[in-house]
Amino acid sequence: MLSPTQSPKTPKRKASTRRTRAGSYLPPVQTQEFHDVALHAIRNVLKGRTCYDAFPVSYRLIVLDTKLNVKKALQCVVSAPLWNSEKSKFAGMLTVLDIIHLIQYYYDNASYDTAAADVETFRLESLRDIEKSLGVATPPMFGEHPSSTLYDAAKLLIQTHARRLPLLDYDTETGHEVMVSVLTQYRLLKFIAINCTREIQQLHLSLRKLKIGTYVSQSPPADNTNPYWPIATATLNTPVFDVVHMFSERSISAVPIIDQDGVVVNLYETVDVITLVRLGAYQALDLTISEALNQRSPDFPGVVICTAGDSLGTLLQLIKKRRVHRLVVVEGEKGRLFGIITLSDVLRYLIGNVAIGEGVESEEIAATSTDKVQCAESPSS
Questions:
Q1: Which stretches does DSSP call E strand in the chain?
Q2: How many of the other CB atoms lie within 10 Å of CB of 348?
Q3: Domain 206-351 has CATH 3.10.580.10
Q4: Of 77, 122, 97, nearest to 245 (Cα)?
Q5: Where in the chain is the domain with CATH 3.10.580.10?
Q6: 306, 315 in Cβ contact below 8 A?
Q7: What does the alpha-carbon distance between residue 164 and residue 360 come to, in Å, rounded to a whole number?
Q8: What is the pLDDT of residue 116?
Q9: What are the residue ranges in the chain where pLDDT is below 70?
Q10: b or e along 94-121 (b: 16 or more beta carbons within 10 Å of the residue's beta carbon)?
Q11: Gene3D superfamilies this protein is in (predicted)?
Q12: Which of 48, 129, 306, 339 could bridge across to 215 with cysteines, CB 3.0–4.6 Å?
C-alpha cells in the first residue's frame, strides 16, 4: 500500500528501436502474359513425364472378354478394356455410350419382353453391329505405350475425342499385347493439379474469356426452338428415353435438368440409365426424369456448378480435391443455365491445338465472378 507522501516509482522506458516497416503485400498482376507463361510451363512438365508417372500407387485393372454377355459385364463396371481371348489381342473399350446405343436399339426395334430376354445372352463382341444398325460412328481402335509422354497421350485423347486411353505394352517372349492400365482425362488433369501447383495459381483468367466450355448462344439458328441452344436440356417431366436419344445422337454423357425459368435443378447422366439397366428396369425408359431420379443411388455427389467468371486455376484446384467430370455454368442468384464445361473442354485448352495466347476474347462477359467454384447438392425431386 502506498503512503500519501510517497509516489510510485515509474519504470524507465526502454530506448526505442525503430524497425524498418515491411512493405505492403500486393497480389501478382493478373495479365495474359503470366497466364501464358504458366500454360507453357504445364505443357513442358507433361512433355517431360510419362504415363507411368500418372499411375496411382495402387490400382486394379478390370479387363472384359468379348465373349462375356453385356448384363454380366455391367454388374462389374460401366467402362473397361475389351480383350479378344482367341487372338490374345486388345479389342477396344467398353464405354457407357455403347450401352446407351444398345438401349436405343432395343427400344426402337424390339418389345420389352424380347429386349429383356435378348440382353441376357447379348455378347460384348456384338456391340459394333448395333452401332452400324443405328448409323453411329464406330469408335476408333487406338492405344498408347505407357512410356509415352503425358503430353502425347493427352494429344491422342483430344484427337480421338475419347475420355479414356488404353495403355498397351508387348510381352517380349510371346509378342502378344499386354494391357497395362487406362489413362483417363480426370487422372491426367488431377496429375496437373497436383504437380503444377505454382503454375495453376497463375491461371487466373476466366473460363468464358478463355472460351472453355459450351455456352448458350446469343444468336441461335433461325429454325431453332431450343432457347438454350446448342446445349441439350430436359425438364423433370421429360421422358427418360428422350434423354437417352440425346445421349446417343449427340455423344454426350449428361443433360442439365431445368425448370420453366431455366434454373438448373438437377443433372441426368448416362450412368443413371446404366443403373436402370442393372436393376432390369428396361420399361423405366418410359418414366419421367423426376420418377427416374427417385431410383438414383443415394451416393450421387451432386451437381457441381460454377460461374463463367471463375478462373481455370480455381477449376483445377477443385479437380485436385474431388472427382469432377463436368461443371454446369450458371448465372444470376437463382442459378439460370448459362453453359456447361466438360473435362474434354479443359484438356483441349491446356493441351490442344490452340496456340498459347490465342482463343481469348477481347471483351469481358457481363457476369459476376464468385471467384470460387461452388458445389451444390442436387435437390430432391
A1: 64-65, 80-84, 89-94, 164-170, 177-184, 214-215, 254-258, 264-269, 303-306, 326-331, 336-342, 374-376
A2: 18
A3: yes
A4: 97
A5: 34-193, 206-351
A6: yes
A7: 28
A8: 64
A9: 1-30, 110-113, 115-117, 119, 279-284, 353-381
A10: bbbbbbbbbbbbbbeeeeeeebeeebee
A11: CBS-domain
A12: 339
Q: For the whole model, what pTM was predicted?
A: 0.81
Tell me, what's the pLDDT at 71? 82
d(CA 226, CA 221): 10
Q: What is the pLDDT of residue 374?
A: 40
Cβ distance 137 to 250 under 8 Å? no
pLDDT of residue 230: 95
Residue type for 238, please? T
Report whether 196 contacts 42 (CB < 8 A).
Answer: yes
CATH 3.10.580.10 for the 34-193 domain, yes or no: yes
pLDDT tens-digit readout, 102-130: 888 877 776 666 766 676 788 999 988 88
Residue 286 DSSP label: G
